[in-house]
Fold:
Amino acid sequence: MSDKQMRITLTAWRQDGPDAPGRFETYDVPGVSPDMSFLEMLDVVNERLQREGKEPIAFDHDCREGICGSCGMMINGQAHGPERGTATCQLHMRKFRDGDHVTIEPWRAAAFPVIRDLIVDRTALDRIIESGGYISAPTGGAPDANLIPIPKPVADAAMDAAACIGCGACVAACPNGAAQLFTAAKVQHLNLLPQGQAERWDRTINMVETMEEYFGSCTLHRECEAACPKSISIDFIALMNRDYAKAQLAQRRLVGQTFP
Amino acid sequence: MSIRGDLVAPVPPGPLEDKWDNHRFSIKLVNPANKRRFEIIVVGTGLAGASAAATLGELGYNVKVITFHDSPRRAHSIAAQGGINAAKNYKNDGDSVYRLFYDTIKGGDYRAREANVYRLAQISVDIIDQCVAQGVPFAREYGGLLDNRSFGGAQVSRTFYARGQTGQQLLLGAYQALMRQVHLGTVTLIPRTEMLDLVVKDGRAAGVVCRDLNTGEIYSLSGHAVVLATGGYGNVFFLSTNAKNSNVTAAWRAAKKGAYFANPCYTQIHPTCIPASDDFQSKLTLMSESLRNDGRIWVPKQIDDPRSPDQIPEDERDYYLERRYPAFGNLVPRDVASRAAKREVDAGRGVGPLKNGVYLDFSDAIRRLGRNVIEERYGNLFEMYERITGEDPYVVPMRIYPAVHYTMGGLWVDYNLMSNLPGLFVLGEANFSDHGANRLGASALMQGLADGYFVIPYTIGDYLAPMLGERPVPVDDPVFREAEQAVSDLTRRLLSINGKRTVDDIHRELGKVLWDNCGMARSEQSLQKALAEIPAIREEFWKNVRVLGGDETRNQALEKAGRVADFLEFGELMCIDALHRNESCGGHFREEYQTEDGEALRDDENFAYVAAWEFTGTGEQPKLHREALEFEYVKPSTRSYK
Structure:
């Protein structure tokens, strides 16, 4: 808690629609409390803009607890801003100093076209999940949950991967606009678990190939890991690449008999 | 009991434990080859909506599912932290389906329908099996079996969890199942689209009017049945733990088309949230109730104690929950814990810079179990707390205070989860059905998934089967055209006011009136005050709100304005319901009705019923319908957690 108030200068990307030309606009923002979240600071700016008869800055947000993955923007060139392992909504103004100049832009990636201002279209991530990011287990008929013991380290590793919130920061941070971290997190969440083995090889091939339709290629910059609000490890990319190679090399029809 | 209800929800005959089986056998089926001839519209993609859409798609129905999010994975179910209950009795500690049923009825303060709650408890075990099969990474013991923890309102460990992200993992499971159906072509996913009206023809739900949030296009979807899974209305208070976009619009617009709204005054105030810090606060953040397993709640005994917590010796602390409720201690149900915190803060023993919280202290648990165990159990919650407050809870006790969290009220439904409007089904938090006047922790996820995976897939067939061969009402039918026109007119009206106040500004004002007068405690006087003030705020809104921009591009202020317009009508109904219910029960605490030691005083003689309100016009007194609640198995008694 602090009573000290800050004054910052905010430069924001404004774009009225998908096909409209964009521009930067700069606002003076006095009265910023260090206890404000970054989005609350934007709320204050937007309230003032509307009172002045200007349209507010559009940005995606919802839970404001760092879990829904809706929010996200480049803050001074960093996806989700300066705090490690933190989504934009959980970033607080105490991470900035009085007099700072803060620039915000939408996610930068060819696969995420701008809808308006800071809102982008991340449908491509859903397409990757749709291509195989699931275990085919129709409702009903599942065996008792304790029938398959899963060693704790395996369950923990799967959970580490499953923590992905699908925000797209990994793509935005990547110089190539690649979605390897997002894809690997889902592939490995499911591939690590015993329930995920039946579809393991098809899943890996389908998801990787769908990813490549929309996104750039990974050249191991590791920017994704640094930007990830859930600090998901790039080890999962290595595991996915291993599974992809195995799936490619093996004659898949026989794999069911020889793997895992 | 003397209550005569005019509203009847036929409950299947037979002993409690056979009702659901009997019902499933007696209801009509749609043959697999005919399912594709039925169009079903699902609104919302949280746990209830996504699980329903996925399962209905698997069965072969033609499903269209809409969400205002950019992806189904973002619904607010994702933020549930603590866990999901199931009567698996894996811990061998005396749990059973009957005990989960009993705990839920009692926890709900005897204001829920027995047959529905029993079914929920029965289904709970299938949910865990289903989720594990989907790959939900629940916490495990070292031997590889599933781990459980305990939760408020129960004396057994029946809560399954995935770190502090259980809702996220369950929602991703449902989302993945849904995306599989999208891939297979049984479900059409329509994201960034908001439902703005329900269309009713000849007394039956015929479809919805929606608005594409990116382009502003207003159009209709028609179907044989409409399934609403649109969540709760906690954001009527402006400050709540709900996601910023959660709203009552879909449910309220259905209510304006004739669906009854049941028990709107039952709102749950969650005891463990981070206290508000200032006027710019945009929402409140919940800290999972599971923290009460290991954290001890206390306040200084001295009023306005200026010392920091580590300077206050043990004998000058009041562990008031352990003192007042020795049997349940820190694990009393939410409503009891919330009111107890309010009592301490109101008495001047609050802590923190604004004196608006109580301590939740882990130092004993850290000493007993070690920091690494606490980190394992609650690591991400501690991190979140530190991020928001700048204080390290491993060192300084957390400060918590109650906040609006969940709404037990919702659209009225029968045993089949169908509203009084045939063809309109309501699932999850959007319906009123299973939690009575107070929901137990870890039961929302259970109910959402029970409704979506295991109830609606059976019960919708009973409604659809006789319609075989009928086409849905075409979207060029005058009922659709008129509804679309009304939605366009409303949009244009909002954009044309061009007053002086922003939507949020007016929403905040409404929220404060409701929190002060219809919040944790209500009285006849406070409710009369709110009922006098709300129409004035509503009038101010329609005269003086400023919504800029147009209706052909993304316009978030316009979206918000429509939702707040609905809250301004709905808030009034909430107060009317709270005022008419002259008793205290669960989340509804009327100051006039309490025992000598400040506990809720129920009046079963006069109020053991569901209050289902029929809309009669904005600002008009709604019409009350009563569904009498009969308790054949659990005899209502005064809840005691001592």
Remarks:
- Chain B touches chain A through 85 residues (CB under 8 Å).
